[in-house]
Amino acid sequence: MIEIREATLEDIPFITTIFRDTITNVNAKDYSEKQIRQWASGASDIDQWKDRIANSYFIVAELNDTIVGFAYLSKGNYFDGLFVHKDFLRRGFGIKLMRIIESQALAEGYEVIKADVSITALPFFEDQYYIVEKKQKKNYKGLAFEIFKVYKEL
Length: 154
Ligand SMILES: CC(C)(COP(=O)(O)OP(=O)(O)OC[C@H]1O[C@@H](n2cnc3c(N)ncnc32)[C@H](O)[C@@H]1OP(=O)(O)O)[C@@H](O)C(=O)NCCC(=O)NCCS
Known about the structure:
By secondary structure, the protein is of the alpha+beta class. The chain has one domain: Aminopeptidase (3-Layer(aba) Sandwich). The protein is 34% helix and 36% strand. The chain contains five helices and seven strands. Strands 1-2-3-4-5-7-6 form a seven-stranded mixed beta sheet. The radius of gyration is 15 Å and the shape is globular. Coenzyme A (COA) binds next to β4, α4 and α5.
């Protein structure tokens, strides 16, 4: 059974494990070892995860009571994160999470949703009709990452 629900603070250990494992196994093909280490180390910023859960629209996808992915929307229409566990890719979880995030932005009165997406996730976002506004370098913990600014009209 697939269930999508809002995240709670108790979910943080599962969310951070998916974050670290997905980056080190899935995104690793598109970024340097140093970038991957730096990005994945964000899993340990527990205060930041607490803040995201408290202040964003943060949802998790569960399959038989196991969290297999998560997504969050901040500032009303900024699609801030979307991660699916490496062992559960291409099973429709990413799309389900995306649809609910988009519906939330629409329900909050926004006509456009924006995101900064990784090289790895770009084909998925383009497949879902997101348009690339520009390619740029984004600084994360002192390292530059190549990302794509995208948007979609809802
Ligand atoms: C991007 C991501 C969330 C997609 O999750 P997913 O659950 O595998 O996606 P879905 O199963 O819902 O994919 C639905 C469709 O999107 C397209 N798609 C998904 N991943 C794709 C990829 N890597 N390349 C091309 N198309 C892709 C396909 O059309 C797919 O349908 P199909 O499997 O029937 O061909 C997942 O790959 C991920 O977590 N990536 C790493 C983390 C990341 O970079 N996140 C974004 C940064 S914020």
